[in-house]
Design goal:
The structure holds two protein chains of two kinds. In chain A, a hairpin with a 5-residue loop joins strand 16 and strand 17. In chain A, helix 7 packs across helix 10. Chain A is globular and about 110 Å long. The model of chain A has no long low-confidence stretch (mean pLDDT 94). Chain A contains 20 helices and 22 strands. Chain A has four domains: 117 residues, Alpha-Beta Plaits (2-Layer Sandwich); 114 residues, Fumarate Reductase Iron-sulfur Protein, Chain B, domain 2 (Orthogonal Bundle), CATH 1.10.1060.10; 147 residues, FAD/NAD(P)-binding domain, CATH 3.50.50; 155 residues, FAD/NAD(P)-binding domain. Chain B has a single domain, classed as NADH:ubiquinone oxidoreductase Nqo5 subunit (Beta Polymerase, domain 2), CATH 3.30.460. In chain B, a hairpin with a 2-residue loop joins strand 1 and strand 2. Chain B is elongated and about 75 Å long. Chain B starts with a helix and ends in a 6-residue tail after the last helix. The chains are: A alpha/beta, B alpha+beta. At the A-B interface, helix 1, strand 2, helix 6 and helix 20 of A face helix 4 and helix 5 of B. Bound molecules: flavin-adenine dinucleotide and iron/sulfur cluster (2 copies). The site of flavin-adenine dinucleotide (FAD) has 42 residues of chain A, from helix 12, strand 7, helix 13, helix 16 and helix 17.
Amino acid sequence: MGNLRDVLSPFTAWKHLIETPVTIRNPIGREAADGYRGFHQNDIEKCIGCGSCEVICQNAAIDMVPVSAPVDGDSGLRPKIDYGRCCWCALCVDVCMTGSLTMSNEYTWVDADPDAFRFIPGVDPKPWDDMEKGYRREGARVLTGAERVEMGELPPEARIDNFDEIVVGYTREQAMIEADRCVECGLCVATCPAHMDIPDYIAAIREGDYDLGLQILYETNPFSEVCGRVCTHKCETACAARHEGDPIAIRWLKRHIVDNVSEDRRLEIVGTPQALPTGRKVAIVGAGPAGLTAAYDLARQGHAVTVYEAQDKPGGMMRYGIPEYRLPYDALDRDIAVIAAQGVTIKTGVRIGREIAMDKLRGEFDAVVLSIGLHIGRSTRIPGTEGPGVEAAIDLLARITAGEEVPVPERVVVIGGGNVAMDIARSMARLQKRKHGAVGVTVTALEDFAHFLADREEIEESFDEGIEIVDARGPQEVVRYKSGKRKGAVKGLRTWAVTSIFDGQGRFAPQYDQGDERLHPADMVVEAIGQAADVSILGEDLTEALEWTRGRLAVDPAGRSSEPWLWAAGDAVHGPDVITAVADGHRVAASVGAMLMAMGEVAR
Amino acid sequence: MMRDLHDHLKTRYRLGDLAERRANLAFVDVARADLRALLVELRDVHGFTHLSLLTAVDWIEEGRFQLTYLMNNRTANRSLGLRVFLDRADPVGDTIHDLWPTAATYQRELREMFGIAFPGSPRVDEEFILEGWTDMPPYRRDFDTLAYSQQTFSDREGRETHDPRAHMAKKLNPEGQR
Ligand SMILES: Cc1cc2nc3c(=O)[nH]c(=O)nc-3n(C[C@H](O)[C@H](O)[C@H](O)COP(=O)(O)OP(=O)(O)OC[C@H]3O[C@@H](n4cnc5c(N)ncnc54)[C@H](O)[C@@H]3O)c2cc1C
Ligand code: SF4
Ligand code: SF4
């Protein structure tokens, strides 16, 4: 009987009955020392419900209980303390990830109801809630490291004339230290679009078990090598560690696992489909992350999957958009190899709608998944954009990937302030450095630096590489030479200063200061302001039959279109990044799989 | 200065390097056999008349206990900590209650909380603050405080906790979508 002592302890206390009491009869009214550890206080707005306090408590005095609805980075749970168990050690205060939990110096409170001594500090009002005195942790938290292990990078001079990968990757020692900072609260999991089991794979690193780590990665993401390099890492914005330090480098830790498992070993661990062939056939249009993830899942369910890809190689924007210095092609190839090993047929160089009609797919397959991404570069349509010397960023990036010759003039101006603008600017800078020995790229963005769309690292690294970025400039005209030898060629981009981008209703309606005009000299202007899906492939009848929402194909939460045989996934319907495409791929595969299983039941 | 003292003493005692924490606080490792003689010399010759505390650290990975004797020189306002290491498998320290009577109390506490024996120390085997303790000495690092607490004390009725990750998955992604 585990709780014998609960029953016996009153009797053992009897032996003290005849002794003179050493306790003060009425301690109430006598204030404790300033730094005394008394009843807890919790700043409810600051607390994120990570539960680290519960985990560290050696007396199991804390329960995490629902107080509000969970949102990104906050479970909505708050600690409820049982003072029948608390020993006032303050470990919970020392470990608290946000500094929300403190202790007042109030230690006396009389109540006949033992359950009154179980309450949620900060939620159940108490007289000591606002007391200034009591135990406060000195400085920031120290029980878990606050600083991220710095990632090694090629210095600018070593990278500016080539497309070598910039990020070096963690060593085992670095990864171990970084992994050790994780408190495994799991707040990040809900924020990751694919709900990757982040704390579990970080724990695997800590155990040094990379095979297990890889297995965990594959349960949710067949593009972990890609995502370990270029993921937008939304998870890190939900990390408990970010409140009093740097968030855990989740993306780099993911990469570290994959870096430590060879391609052969990955194939062994992941294996091939265990399900018996179902005899069902699925066509997937577009070999980007959405299509290939769906292919991976469906193949593992035993269905025959054929992926049609217009380009010469699979990968979509991961290959033809994202530059090699961020994502080397062989890294992408390794992820795709594991998917192909599931028996997925990938037919490259086949553009559906041209070589093969959608109707034909519909006739030959039980289901069709459309994962065509966004491959038409949008234009500003400002005067002068028609004609030579004006390019779309994604076209140029694709041609660079394909190894085609692209124009590399000495001066290039990029329109756009997002990551795609940075990718083309930095790619052109490399080509210029090679050809001319100098970088001559100017990026003009509508947003000012405080509201910039591109990631901070991208901006900093671009500066390091000698790229000029001018913020808050609105493009007005691509100016061309009017006469002379260069008549018709691009002379530069004329811009106005931006005073505001959105109107009172939050609609895109940029306002300019026309008095502040500049001509950015350029021999070529590149537009990087967004992409659209090429839905012309659907053909007139199908386009007519399908439902649309604001120019996009309408799909239900499972990714199914209004036509029962057609699903859509990835950028073409959702966006904006690889991990969302992966999540979409899983979702669509589950829905298609359920439909195919139902078909099987009926056939039987 | 502490450094001069260290230089002076290390010719005759087996001392480690001086670890200076503050201008008036330093620590040094001492061979167990030299401890007593060094304590006496520090007290009687160098003015470290006060034993501020005697405590222990469990270096479980290294298989040893560390005893720290913190000595204070009141007039010079400085403290010197002597560190002695004991085999964790057979932890026996040397009593110094005859040098400072208060040491007996510290030694009794160390006996109870870490299981370090001090043969000859007065009342050393009597209970100190734990009553009827039958478990492993609780300050040893391999003592599982949480498990002990859970076995020993019952929870009040109606307690229920939620794992943040599982709770969020249930609320935000009820279909269990990947
Ligand atoms: C320059 C750039 C940089 C980016 N950087 C990042 C980044 O760092 N991190 C990140 O997470 N995301 C990034 N993204 C976004 C990311 O690449 C996309 O969100 C993701 O690739 C979308 O996947 P998808 O499968 O929907 O489409 P895509 O990857 O676009 O794949 C669609 C595929 O369909 C093919 N296709 C289209 N039409 C047809 C047809 N008719 N017949 C046959 N095949 C067809 C295309 O050729 C393409 O291969 C970037 C995008 C760009 C453009
Ligand atoms: S003070 Fe110590 S015992 Fe009390 S709840 Fe916090 S960690 Fe648990
Ligand atoms: S550790 Fe701090 S932030 Fe996390 S749940 Fe406990 S009180 Fe809240």
